[in-house]
Write a structure and sequence with these properties.
single chain; Thiol Ester Dehydrase, Chain A; 5 helices; alpha+beta
Length: about 270
């Protein structure tokens, strides 16, 4: 197990044509941003990159992370992930853009004891895309009581996010097809986004924070099912927030990841 190291790169917006139009220039500018936002899950993957490089499969098997995204990062912009504190099997890091703005931060660790993995409930499937209700507070309160639908996903070259770096050859070896082909952090945390968006129809929205636990690496070709439930709903400064717990399972096996997502599902109207 090697020591974690800071690194720099160029930000990559893999999804400028996403259903979430905050990743496209036109809508993002209406809300006061300079352009389409790099996904929060991608920013989180940059902060986790030192853990994957240094700790490898051990991190994918039992690593824990808590990441908060506070400021936007834009496609092509330079960023630096700075390791701020180090312990034997843990570190804190912050991500800064080229102007020195602190955009995100996180703590990553391999805990001495991994908490028990959640069990699968057998949730009903999420509705067809055309039948999703709009994400209003009333709708989400109802879904909080009734439960969310489960979502299917598959980790392979057709996945919505296959890399968090523009050049996949620069990914850590175990995330590349020749070195293991395990799912990367942007895809894994992206499961929380897709679980929310599969249950309700959203306008522009923001992924802000995740607290996640790995239980096993996700091998290439793995079929997954993601079960979710709403933990909290609240309003702050005109934004509507949701906290949502998600657990990803292979179709015939125990959980591989659990995470709590915090997102702004409804942004206050632009000025």
């Amino acid at each position: 197990m090697s020591e974690v190291s800071s690194f720099s790169g160029a930000a990559y917006n893999q999804v400028p044509d996403s259903e979430n139009q905050i990743h496209g220039d036109e809508v993002a500018r209406q809300y006061g941003f300079k352009g389409g936002l790099v996904p929060g899950v991608t920013v989180s993957a940059y902060l986790a990159h030192p853990a994957v490089v240094a700790w490898g499969r051990d991190y994918l098997s039992r690593g824990h992370a808590h990441v908060t995204v506070a400021r936007p990062l834009y496609d092509g912009g330079r960023f630096t992930v700075t390791i701020e504190t180090r312990e034997e099997r843990a570190y804190r890091a912050a991500l800064f853009d080229a102007a020195g703005t602190r955009c995100a931060e996180g703590r990553f660790a391999i805990p001495p004891t991994v908490p028990p993995a959640p069990s699968r409930r057998g949730d009903r499937p999420a509705p067809p895309a055309s039948e999703r209700p709009w994400a209003t507070r009333q709708t989400l309160e109802r879904l909080r009581a009734e439960g969310l639908g489960a979502v299917r996903a598959r980790w392979d070259e057709q996945a919505p996010i296959t890399t968090y770096l523009r050049d996949p050859a620069q990914l850590p070896d175990l995330l590349r097809p020749g070195g293991g082909g395990y799912a990367n952090q942007a895809f894994i945390l992206g499961l929380t986004n897709w679980a929310l968006a599969a249950n309700v129809r959203l306008g522009p929205w923001l992924h802000l924070e995740t607290d996640s636990q790995h239980y096993a690496p996700i091998a290439y070709g793995t079929e997954l099912i993601v079960e979710s439930q709403i933990a909290d709903l609240f309003e702050r400064k005109g934004h509507e927030f949701v906290d949502m717990d998600c657990v990803a399972f292979p179709l015939d096996g125990p959980a591989v990841m659990s995470a709590r997502l915090r997102a702004i599902y409804r942004l206050r109207p632009p000025a």
